[in-house]
Amino acid sequence: MKRKIVTGAFIMTMVFSALLSGCGKGSKASENGSVELLNVSYDPTREFYAKYNELFSEYWKEKTGEEITITQSHGGSGSQARSVIEGNEADVVTLALAHDVTAIEEAGLIENGWIEEFDRNSAPYTSTIVFLVRKGNEKGIQDWDDLVKDGIEVITPNPKTSGGACWNFLAAWAYQQKQDGGDEEATRAFMKKLYENVLVLDSGARGATNTFVENGQGDVLIAWENEAYLSMEQYPDEYEIVTPSISILAEPSVAVVDSNAKEHGTEELSKAYLEYLYSADAQRLAGENYYRPSDQEILKEFSDQFNLDMDLVTIDDFGGWNAAYDTYFNDGAVFDQIYES
């Protein structure tokens, strides 16, 4: 029997129930008396954090003797950031890109300098963007230019709500800029054609995966590498991964939501929760869940799984996230101009 990729409704219901149980100020305590921690994350991390929470809980119990209850919340990264700004009392956030964490910082909930609090720009694991196609790849999809051909139906989420979708957009843009020799008008035309071929623009990466995998829509899914591998694991005879000639180094970011952690009395626990992501056990767990470990030596252990020779641009090639967001994703910026046209 097929195992469906988990959707967010059940997890969000559990999160809402946990929040309604109420905790007042001081340490958040669940009904069984254990300290409670809320991790607000983005779409495709459900499976990884379900396992990581068990690993960390065992570590913390052995280190401190303290029982903890960790609750997860998942959705499109941009939507998740807005939910924290609007009152979702996350102790930590583990989001798809630094810009979403910066938005929470600018709202006064995270202290300045968060990106330097943990190693490697507070990105304990990375990923990249690949294509997921149906077994046999009947449409012959090999690279980004195949996605703009007539009759190709593309599935990708919405950059206005999904961090993964922003990485998708930038990877496609980088590919075409190289083909066009930096001709922005030609690249805009390419991106317009690409989004004309988008059949469904879901709000988050997991929703896009379910549209492609569960609902059978589209010819190709532009996907997080880890999400594509998870689909392959769950449906080994139905899909295959295509690696484009150019992609992007995607760096999901983590941070303590300082204001909430102080109020909840979970500052030490929240920091330890994120620090432990860099431990050898957690790094290997990330690799086993198809994220690329940030520890380069442990990453090499997964060289049979990941293509470590991919041509990857970085967000620095776009001037950093603030510049990229201003140029491409803010209201009225390039994505809106392309999509509305």
Structural commentary:
- The chain is α/β, with parallel strands linked by helices and 341 residues long.
- The chain has 15 helices and 13 strands.
- The chain has helices spanning 8-20, 46-64, 77-85, 98-106, 119-122, 163-180, 184-196, 205-213, 225-234, 258-264, 267-275, 280-288, 296-300, 321-329, 334-340; strands at residues 35-41, 68-73, 92-95, 125-126, 129-134, 154-155, 198-200, 220-224, 239-242, 246-248, 253-256, 292-293, 311-313.
- Helix 2 runs antiparallel to helix 12, helix 3 packs parallel to helix 4 (98-106) and helix 6 (163-180) packs across helix 7.
- The longest helix has 19 residues, at 46-64.
- It is globular.
- It starts with 7 loop residues before the first helix and ends with a helix.
- Residues 1-26 have low confidence and may be disordered.
Strand order of the largest sheet: 7-6-8-5-9
Number of strand segments: 13
Instruction: For the record, give the distance between the C-alpha atoms at the N and C termini, rounded to a whole number.
Output: 44 Å
Low-confidence parts, pLDDT < 50 over ≥5 residues? 1-26
Helix-strand makeup class: alpha/beta
